Amino acid sequence: LYSATFNILCSFYLQLHVIFLSCLSAPPRSKYFSVKCTANVQYSISPPTSGEDLSPTPLNGNSVLLISMSRASESENDSKLSVQYYGENKEVLGRAVLHLTAVEISLDVDADRDGVVEKNNANKGSWKWGPNGHGAILLVNCDSEQKFWNKKPDCEQDYVTKVSDLKDMSVMVLRTRGPAKLPEGYKLTMHISQGHAESVRVFRSTSPELHKTLSKFIYNNFVKNYPLVLSSEVLSQEVPYLGGVAEMKFHVEGLRFPDNDFDGLVTINLSLLEPIATDIPETPIFTDQVVFRVAPWIMTPNTLQPVEVFVCNTSDNNPFLKGMRNLVAKSGYKLTICPKYVNRGDRWMQDELEFGYIDSPHQQFPVVLDSPRDGNLQDFPYDELLGPDFGYVTRVAKREHVSSLDSFGNLEVSPPVTVNGKKYPLGRIIIGVAFPTATKGRNMTKVVQDFLWAQKVQEPIALFSDWLYVGHVDEFMTFVPAPNRKGFRLLLASPDAGYKLFRGLQNNGHGKAKMFEGLRDEKTITVDEIVDDENLQAQNNYVQSCIDWNRDVLKRELGLDDEDIIDLPILFMLVTEGEEESVLRAVAYYPDMVNMIVLGKNLGIPKPFGPKVNGRCALEAEMCSLMEGLGLSCTFIDDFATYHKLLGEVHCGSNVRREPFDFKWWNLEM
Ligand SMILES: *[C@@H]1O[C@H](CO)[C@@H](O)[C@H](O)[C@H]1NC(C)=O
Ligand SMILES: *[C@@H]1O[C@H](CO)[C@@H](O)[C@H](O)[C@H]1NC(C)=O
Ligand SMILES: *[C@@H]1O[C@H](CO)[C@@H](O)[C@H](O)[C@H]1NC(C)=O
Ligand SMILES: *[C@@H]1O[C@H](CO)[C@@H](O)[C@H](O)[C@H]1NC(C)=O
């Protein structure tokens, strides 16, 4: 494009993206030059010259011509720029003419996050968090347009079967303006790196109505053909140039969630390629770039509005189901009972799955995270929940030992908090692991931990839960909504509060009151017997120290004061674990009231069967008085025989799908 031997370097600085079709050469002995051009063309000379450009200007050894064009060409070579060369006496020696064709190309996305693809956003090529941030968003297409037959997450197939699937994808528009066709040999290609192609697919819409904005015809909306443009097998593909003023629509599908090997960002490029010579690859003369971030999986804390409650019918659990049915009906939500042929006797609905959601400016739907636990309920998330606008994701533990800590009773999330000025408007994920100094112990598998940390927007907190026989954080903590302070309270199981209550009963003359009255197959025990059992007291001192350790972590990591925490009177006892000889771990001594279901202002609490005072259970009375101050209503559900005795309670046996946050995750300041 330049001819260094003739001392004029034609460098082209172009606002529009231009194809250079011919160039110029200055005759030998040239001493002056002048420039002329058509209306569409702007140029400048560097270093700047004095005087008018139309009169001969001295030709300097390193003069450079900078050219730009203000509008796209309507036809090939429709603009011109000519340079006239003069000799010593300003006699004309020759003329060079540049034929110019300008093509406007813009690959566009919804970089301002309003659900509409705007035109050539200046920030579309990068991604920034926060309300003043920018950058397009992509969903993992993890729901299934098929509800029954041949069901699988849509992202597992590399074609579009239903037009309804397009709403789960992000729209990308290629806007072009220029002559009817590109000059011979030039072409447009879309390309992506191998690493990024593992995470997305790009389909092109061939629907005619989408092609030309100037089209006068209204075409049928139903579209059959969405050719695959980019995938992990096709990293680069030519896309048609439509000519004139045109828009071509693409649909971008996310394939995987952020993880420890994927930060969530994906770049897609579109280039105009220029032919050099036959057998030599074309070179890009212009590249436009867009960046997407894959939406994270987000958990929903107890303070969000419930939508649907899930429990299992194991045919032996009728009292529990009756209690849950009443509570859910009273609260006005949907109750879904998983039948026995699906749960195959596995009643731990909390443990097999965690409900969350994914969100973007154009689409939002719930996504179930399936635990590697894989009890008899293992097919429930995939078979019963995956469907249109209901996504599914799982992590499979390879080689790693899956323990009880991989059940999702051990995966919770706090309400929104602010910690030392740092805001967590989506709360923080809470998991339980082995004590940090333990040389061996149970942990949540690395694949699940990696997944949770990689979502970034609910930065996890690891608590110590391995001291519990079952090992789940929901055995000693939960959150309930509150009208004041931070909008919630942390409830903690507290043996100290338990002993205080029992001693109080003893001191007030109720030492002979009995626990577990009215339960079949359960021996009663008096308040005196509990208080006087030194062994039990020692065990509970240990449990209290484990909970206190977690209490400190929670206070620090959630920015809580003591006033934000309520201690519930709950006693534990230590038992030996079957296989691992001589490891003592804790289980609840009576139904573990903190292991509750929270449905708005209604709490479904395991019925503790505590000692009665004046006909009323003292534990229930204490629980109610603690909760009533927060405007919460307690319903006690009998889970004794079919949950408590199997080392779980109401929360372990249920699950709640909740409304998503109003807060948009991309508005987080990171
Ligand atoms: C445009 O100009 C180039 C260079 O002169 C030439 O090769 C090409 O054929 C021209 N195209 C048209 C359509 O005139
Ligand atoms: C996309 O374009 C950017 C900037 O032009 C470049 O750094 C990157 O390597 C390109 N990626 C691919 C896959 O072409
Ligand atoms: C539970 O399942 C049994 C059959 O196994 C059925 O008779 C009973 O009605 C079911 N209970 C509820 C509450 O759905
Ligand atoms: C368990 O997981 C925690 C949190 O990720 C980690 O810090 C710890 O090292 C793990 N412990 C073991 C014994 O693997």
Please characterize this protein's 3D structure.
By secondary structure, this protein is α+β, with helices and mostly antiparallel strands. The protein has three domains: 2-104, Immunoglobulin-like (Sandwich), CATH 2.60.40.1860; 109-294, Immunoglobulin-like; 298-664, L-arginine/glycine Amidinotransferase, Chain A. The strands form twelve sheets. Strands 2, 3, 5, 7, 8, 10, 12, 13 and 15 form a nine-stranded antiparallel β-sheet that branches. The longest helix has 25 residues, at 534-558. It is elongated. It starts with 7 loop residues before the first strand and ends in a 12-residue tail after the last strand. Residues 1-23 and 209-223 have low confidence and may be disordered.
Q: Cα-atom Rg, whole angstroms? A: 34 Å
The CATH superfamily of the largest domain is: L-arginine/glycine Amidinotransferase, Chain A
- Number of separate helices: 10
Which segments are poorly predicted (pLDDT under 50) over 5 or more consecutive residues?
A: 1-23, 209-223
The helix fraction, in percent, is 10-25%
Biggest pleated sheet: 9 strands, antiparallel
| Shape assignment | elongated
Percentage beta strand: 25-35%
CATH architecture of the largest domain: 5-stranded Propeller
Task: Write a concise synopsis of the structure shown.
The protein is of the alpha+beta class and 670 residues long.
Considering the chains and any ligands shown, give keywords for the structure:
Immunoglobulin-like, calcium, 14% helix, 5-stranded mixed sheet, single chain, PAD, binds 2-acetamido-2-deoxy-beta-D-glucopyranose, alpha+beta, disordered N terminus, 670 residues
